[in-house]
């Protein structure tokens, strides 16, 4: 889809990023509030792991089948309808919390599940529509700027969430999600999103999921990177889901300090996203991806060796600045490579399968994470995650197909561009 079909693409994409920024803040405020509520009420690693597990399952189970609909259905509708459904469940949860003294755990879990299903549709939709809204040579930078928007959300949301959590009853705080849905939908109505002719084709769910899987498997280097990413998730996710317990349990901190760690990590992500957004045209993006994986392993694993006191918490905060800075170099650069590897009308199906494969290991790890953390200590899971990240980074570098993937991709894109110019 040529960007020339979308007049004033810069104005259009920045309006879209603004809508994601404003609606994302309110959604994340509620997400943090729910996790902190569970941490404060139960103090259980098993409960937190189960909450995270429910948040990941839709991504694993539904992503391969969501892709075909993303490629064919109206993109704006796929962004709006899930927000409406999530807002309805937020209202239900708020009403029940008002009528009862405490929130039933089962209803909180259902609410988290619905929010995750909504995100399962929205994430590949956003990822697949970006290449249709901006020129190819600006894609890495715009992905970096999207990462900055998401990081800004993650900076503001924990701080705002911790403040509101302290002064606003939980049953009213949940309604912030409804406000976010109204803001996001209102702005999105003014955004122009290109659609593809394939939108009216009949969806064959299993055949299309198989199509996406075959496309990914036949892209040799990217397939290796995907498998390494799945292993990375298996090692990294269990401890990442227990950040609030690490702060409030191991370091004996407060909800405010749990929010501070989220803010600090996100400030680092914002800095990393800013670097990518300004200087995003690397000749070989696999090199920064490799070093980001190594750096995350060192900082994450190092956190597990810190003493369980306030001095340890200060060092934990410092390590999270570094880890946050490196995170976009892995996620953002990898997503830009994926987006450039497939035609826009196939991207939704490929991303659906890819998101499922890289996420499937998360629930497997989370099943054991809660009981294991309750038994050996949450800090030990950080050590395990750090060692696992280092091994994944090493594997990525030792496999030539993965290490050289971006060089081959950029060479192919340059050839395609030259061929297209000659034909014109």
Automatic annotation (TrEMBL):
GO terms for cellular component: plasma membrane. Keywords: Cell membrane, Membrane, Transmembrane, Transmembrane helix, Transport. The keyword Transport applies. The keyword Cell membrane applies. Residues 12-404 form the Major facilitator superfamily (MFS) profile domain. CDD domains: MFS_MefA_like. InterPro entries: MFS, MFS_dom, MFS_trans_sf. One of its GO terms (molecular function) is transmembrane transporter activity. It is a multi-pass membrane protein. It is found in: Cell membrane. The chain crosses the membrane at residues 12-38, 44-66, 78-97, 142-166, 222-243, 263-282, 289-307, 313-338, 350-369, 381-399. It holds the Pfam family MFS_1. This is Multidrug transporter. It comes from Levilactobacillus koreensis. The lineage of its organism: Bacteria, Bacillati, Bacillota, Bacilli, Lactobacillales.
